[in-house]
Every structure is written in C-alpha cells, then in structure tokens.
C-alpha cells in the first residue's frame, strides 16, 4: 500500500514536470534550435549560435559595402527618368530594401499566434527602429559634420520627427491591437503628403 502511494506520487510529479513542456509544444512556444545543433550541449549551442550570428553580421556588412553605392545611383537614375525628386524615390524604396530582413524574419513568428512569439516580433521591430534612430543616425550626422555638408531638409526632418513621436506613443501602449498597426502603416504614405505640404508652404 505504501509502495502504491509512492508510485502514484512519482507519476503525479512526473506529470507536473512534463505538462508545461507539452503545453508549450501545443502552444507552439517550444525553443527553436537548428537541427545540426540539437545534439550539442547548451553551452556549445550558445557558442555556435554566437559564431553563426557574427559571421552573418559580417557577411551582411560586406553586402552593404558592395551594393549601397550602386543602389543609391540606381535610385537617383530612377528619379531622373521619372521626373520625380530623388528624395521621394529613396523615401519609398530605401526603407523597403534596408528593412527587408526584419520584415521577412518577422513574418513566421506572428503566424504561430502566441503571446511569446508576438512579443518577440514586436521587440525585434522596435529594436530595429531604435538602431535606425541611434547608430545609423549617428553615422549620418557624422558624415554631415566631417564632410562639411549643408543640411537643407527641414520639411523632411519635421516629418521624420513627427512620425517618430507618434510611433513611440504607439510602442509605449501596454497592449498592441490591430488598429495600432493600421495607424502606424498609414503614417508611411501620410508622411510623404506631409513633406509635400511643408515644401509647398515654403520649407526647404
């Protein structure tokens, strides 16, 4: 009788331990690990993932160095052929090209429709936005300062700052809903209209 009680307790404890893992798998929140790394220990997995991330970052940086100048020339050529200012061409096409990795990598996670995966996606997109508005902006401002360039884009600056403030207000909301996404999405075309209106009003 005592042995039977002990067996029942062991079964209950085993079920309690395995249940969260089964629930996580059912919810699609199990940790994803590449097949070729699953046989390694956790420490070896972390080391391999860091090396892989470093190599991919280096490869991406090399691609940027190779293709950034031709891409700028191509956008300028498109603007000349269409008779459209180069800024508007770059404003539409450059973000799509530079942020394509975040868009592509961010699609699979929300499709699982779990709190964890959606939180990861939002964190990744917000991190990319912070990177664009700090590190990339610092490089841009350094080029302006050291090259002695003249800043004559007050309309574009006002539009960018306004969009940043509005998006920051949405990002600080404790709960993200569909209409928040629609609002942020509409800021993209509206910002172009805002710039055109400021330039028509006399801003440079």
Description:
Keywords: Ion transport, Membrane, Transmembrane, Transmembrane helix, Transport. It comes from Chrysochromulina tobinii. It is found in: Endomembrane system. Residues 56-195 form the Sodium/calcium exchanger membrane region domain. One of its GO terms (cellular component) is membrane. This protein has 204 residues and is mostly helical. The chain has a domain at 152-204. It is 81% helix and 0% strand. The protein is built from eight helices and no strands. It has helices at residues 2-27, 42-82, 86-98, 100-106, 108-111, 115-147, 154-171, 178-200. Helix 2 (42-82) packs antiparallel against helix 3 (86-98) and helix 7 (154-171) packs antiparallel against helix 8. Residues 13-29 have low confidence and may be disordered.
Principal-axes shape call: globular
Structure class: mainly alpha
Strand proportion, as a percent range, falls in under 5%
How many helices? 8
Reported for the largest beta sheet, the result is: none
The mean pLDDT is: 77
Give the N-to-C terminal Cα separation: 89 Å
Note the run of SSEs as H and E. Answer: HHHHHHHH
- List the uncertain runs: 13-29
Helix residue percentage = over 70%
Protein name: Ca2: cation antiporter family
Organism: Chrysochromulina tobinii
Keywords: Ion transport, Membrane, Transmembrane, Transmembrane helix, Transport
Membrane topology: Multi-pass membrane protein
